[in-house]
Specification:
439 residues; mainly alpha; 68% helix; 1% strand; globular
């Protein structure tokens, strides 16, 4: 798909503010060469990511080390029925297997619901009101997660809230740029950097608090950050493009929602094929947050100059290396584009998947070489180097591709589909993780 194939976004009586030329988003000038709304979206995403990855970084450890142990699991409302339901499908489970399945189901559903959030925004509320509602629901979920009793209900609120936020925030980012604006991919790259700023800080805060002080304190730090995400979004409301809304059926022009045009169905199918490959990449990479901490505690020497390093600190590398890898990838693509040799989007995604596979091969090789001993800490660092350098080649390119090529009739919905495939990858993470003790 080339830049010339980019679809035009809805205009006329069926839209309030054409996304192809968003009004007022440049009112006070650009920030670092980008629309000012990008700075607020980046702030929201950084706080959101701190909260989300703070929870994810310690979730499996929290469940296996405390919540799903005798004396604690009895306090979790609905736990007996929840466990019985999972074991009816997957068979009897150890606490680790149950924790892995819970991790996969929770993170998977968080990325499955954005397709519904996209529909809510496209058909009823608009992106801005949908995001405000979603951030409020997630804040409530994080606050409830601090209590053992409300654990399962908190996960439900986090799932619902994220479903309302994720695809719509990306949709707003894409609509900051006109249809022919070449800064779009760089804008998504900056967005990915914001994700990993939150991901870089959170293991040092939530991870250290959780492992060294108490799991509740790590979860409280995540709740505080989600509150700041809501505040940051409200502060930037006037910088975002006006919502594209459905015109009343009784309007004089009889306007209706835009429909798929001839040939756009093939574009949708092509995007779905790309997303299928990305789903399997997600299913492998996200073990870094699920089983990898469990594996690393048993198979990697975590002694660092006489200090026993918290295993969650590996996730700090995830943030730092993804930021570095994204910056290098953006510069490389700009250099290649200047010389007319920029690789296609599909080629870049395939390159990223190959780097992810290389990271896991490094872990397998280091474990085999160590035998009955423990692998060096550098093995874990090398794993994150390859896996994180792969992220911009897969995630950034895929998001920019959908934003550019998805038909306007399915604007937010197709970004929701992206998260649906991401959810499939996370379901795969949980399912694969429960084999860890068996194999």
């Amino acid at each position: 798909m080339t830049d010339q194939s980019e679809p035009r976004l809805p205009t006329g009586s069926d839209a309030i503010g054409s996304p192809s030329a968003p009004p007022d988003v440049h009112a006070d000038g650009e920030i670092f060469g980008h629309p000012p709304g990008l700075a607020f979206i980046i702030a929201v995403e950084a706080f959101w990511s701190f909260a989300y990855y703070g929870m994810v970084t310690i979730l499996t450890l929290y469940m296996t080390r405390q919540l799903f142990t005798p004396g604690h699991m009895e306090h979790v409302l609905g736990f007996v029925r929840y466990r019985a339901a999972l074991e009816a499908v997957f068979g009897a489970m150890t606490p680790l297997a149950l924790a892995s399945q819970t991790f996969g189901l929770a993170t998977g559903m968080i990325y499955a619901l954005p397709i519904l959030g996209g529909l809510v925004a496209d058909r009823w509320l608009g992106q801005r009101r949908t995001i405000v509602l979603g951030l409020a629901v997630q804040t409530a979920g994080h606050l409830l997660l601090v209590t053992e009793a409300g654990f399962l209900f908190a996960l439900l609120l986090l799932i619902l809230g994220a479903g309302l936020v994720k695809s719509n925030l990306l949709g707003q980012l894409g609509r900051l740029y006109g249809s022919g604006d070449t800064r779009r991919t760089r804008g998504f790259g900056m967005f990915l950097i914001a994700v990993n700023i939150g991901g870089f800080i959170t293991p040092l805060v939530c991870g250290t608090l959780g492992e060294k002080v108490g799991w509740r304190y790590g979860l409280m730090a995540a709740a505080a950050s989600m509150t700041l995400a809501l505040v940051a979004y409200l502060a930037g409301l006037r910088r975002f493009p006006p919502d594209v809304v459905r015109a009343p059926a009784s309007s004089a022009q009889g306007a209706t929602r835009p429909r798929l045009q001839v040939g756009e169905g093939r574009i949708v199918i092509a995007i779905l094929c790309v997303l299928l490959g990305g789903m399997f990449n997600t299913g492998t990479y996200n073990q870094a947050f699920n089983i990898f901490p469990i594996w690393a505690q048993a198979h990697i020497d975590l002694s660092l100059m006489g200090f026993q390093m918290p295993v969650t600190w590996f996730s700090t590398l995830d943030g730092v290396l993804t930021i570095l890898g994204t910056a290098l990838a953006i510069r490389l693509w700009a250099w290649q584009a200047h010389r007319g040799r920029e690789p296609s989007e599909v080629t870049r995604i395939a390159t990223g998947c190959a780097m992810t596979a290389a990271g896991f091969l490094i872990l397998a090789g280091a474990s085999a070489a160590a035998g009955v001993g423990k692998a060096p800490i550098l093995a874990g660092a090398a794993f994150f180097l390859f896996a994180d350098f792969a992220i911009p080649w897969v995630d950034t390119v895929t998001m920019a591709l959908i934003s550019r090529a998805a038909p306007p009739a399915l604007n937010s919905t197709m970004l929701g589909v992206y998260f649906l495939f991401f959810a499939g990858g996370n379901f795969l993470v949980g399912w694969l993780g429960h084999f860890y003790e068996i194999l």
